[in-house]
Amino acid sequence: MGIRIYKPTSAGRRNASVSDFADLTKGYKPERSLLKPKRKTGGRNNQGKITARHRGGGHKQMYRVVDFRRAKDGVMATVDSVQYDPNRSARIALLKYSDGEKVYVIAPAGLKAGAKVQNGPDAAPVVGNSLPLKNIPLGTTICCIELRAGRGAVLCRSAGTQATLMAREADWAQLALPSGEIRRVPSTCRAVIGQVGNTDHMKVRLGKAGRARWLGRRPHVRGTAMNPVDHPHGGGEGRTKGGRHPVSPQGKSAKGGSTRQRRKGSNSSIVRRRKSRRYGQLKLH
């Protein structure tokens, strides 16, 4: 896995880069039985109102059905191919179980075609295997972690992310997450051994606005460039915000701050909160 830098043949190519896709299996085709059509929302909810700004357009995509539960225990699977997924930053691996079933899973770094993987408490703690946290040695790098047993992986699923199993106590396991947060998770929850692949994803530079449009990202317009009817910072003679502090289009403060619910039930599972970068300093929540 690496980054290929374009030659500066034009202004859009200058400083642009792209993944070299060396970690993908050559000559593969997506498994048609695991493809579903994906409808664009344009950032709108079921009422047609925009809830996520600057979204729309983009290349048409087919959704790959990914198995986040990894609940097929005791059956050996072979990695048929490592493939590109347009719906996520990570790579996906097509597994073929010995009974003939095919599934997509998130591909950890180092997993290649032909490798053998297994699920369940009897699986060995090697890259690509999925097993409960109570069966994983302490200090192991893990990804695709469940928060509730049997519900499927929700933590550390994007490219290059990983967590570390720090300790176990009674029925809980303690994890160090990429954000710096230390959290308790039931030890019956499953995780995949290894770090998520495509580790250089964050180093890719789009280089031109058109590549962002291909991804479905529309232009971001400053509030000060709008009219007063469109944004609290709009209007006025010259460049001015009207003498007020930065706010969102809805008038809420844009200076940062905690967005987590104070009475959220899972607050008791957080041993140490992540560090937040605010006003150039690191502070604990």
Overall description:
The protein has 285 residues and is an all-beta fold. The protein has a domain at 3-37 and 60-202: SH3 type barrels. It has 1 helix and 19 strands. The strands form 6 sheets. It has a 7-stranded antiparallel sheet with strand order 9-16-10-13-14-15-17, with no helix packed on it. A 4-stranded antiparallel sheet has the order 7-6-5-8, with no helix packed on it. A two-stranded antiparallel ribbon has the order 1-2.
Question: Which descriptors apply to this entry?
Answer:
single chain; 285 residues; mainly beta; SH3 type barrels; 7-stranded antiparallel β-sheet; 4-stranded antiparallel β-sheet; 1 helix; 26% strand; globular
Largest sheet, strands/sense/barrel: 7 strands, antiparallel
Strand percentage lies at 25-35%
CATH class of the domain at 3-37 and 60-202, please? Mainly Beta
Strands of the largest sheet, in order across it?
9-16-10-13-14-15-17
Overall body shape:
globular
Number of strands: 19
The chain-level structural class is mainly beta
Number of helices: 1
Terminal residue distance: 36 Å
**Helix and strand pattern:** EEEEEEEEEEEEEEEEHEEE
CATH topology of the domain at 3-37 and 60-202: SH3 type barrels
For the residues shown, what is the average pLDDT? 93
Low-confidence stretches: 279-285
The second-level CATH architecture of the domain at 3-37 and 60-202 is Roll
Rg on CA atoms, Å: 22 Å
Helix proportion: under 10%
